[in-house]
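Blinded run. Sample ID left blank on purpose so nobody reads anything into the name before looking at the predicted structure. Input follows.
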Amino acid sequence: MDFPLLPFHQSAMQHSERIAIRDQDGTCTYAELLNRAISLAAQLLDGHQDLQQVRVAFISPSSRDYVIMQWAIWLAGGLAVPLCVRHPLAEMQYVIEDSQSEKLLVHPTFQEQLEPFQALPQLQWINYNPDLANQKSKLPPIDPNRRAMMLYTSGTTARPKGVVSTHSNIHAQVSTLTNAWQWTHEDHIIHVLPLHHTHGIINKLCC
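Blinded prediction complete.
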């Protein structure tokens, strides 16, 4: 490929033909995840060279589509803001507005539920199509110190607050955890944790 890859994507290429995910739609290899993420990244860029850390809120069921969305945002140079699928609309709107998200990437499962958000000012609504067309675009180089993800705290003492991680932060956490827990290429994990908190995203999915 003619662009610098993040550590996750380098690993995906090294294990390209191995099964990455089993979900309700069957199995998906690392190569399939990466190729679909590249196509979605081209759609997100929409002719631009780099999202320049624009906040992109996104919502997806726990499936391959979540990973494709997350990787695509990163590959396009955006900052991923995952929404909780169980939150009421008011709480989702708070996260979108507080994070100053400029784009909202919506899986078909949630398009009717989130339809009121199409009226939010300064927010570009993007329908996610699981049957992605094969698109290519020159993707930007991503500095490891770039902001990668904003997760919101549980809000036990006040309104939830957005906490930002850089690509370097995430890579350090994943490397430390995989070494401490002695993950191997033969290990599997049943993923039932929510994908808007650190444990579900970092400790399970990214590891």
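Unblinding after everyone has recorded impressions. The longest helix spans residues 30-45.
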